[in-house]
Specification:
It is a single chain. The protein is mostly helical. The protein has one domain. It has three helices and no strands.
Amino acid sequence: MWNVIKSVLAAFFGVQKEARRREDFEKGRAGPFIIVGVVMGVVLVVLIALVASMAAK
């Protein structure tokens, strides 16, 4: 699971190596990547909203 999280984080920042991306597509199933990506996306939006609301006070 840690490898999936690392791959999704690297993809979020756009720094994933080509070899790692190929390995993910060849060996990994799509489900865990989708779930982790959605969860991390929601966390990112919540954090941005939290920081914005704190800055607006």
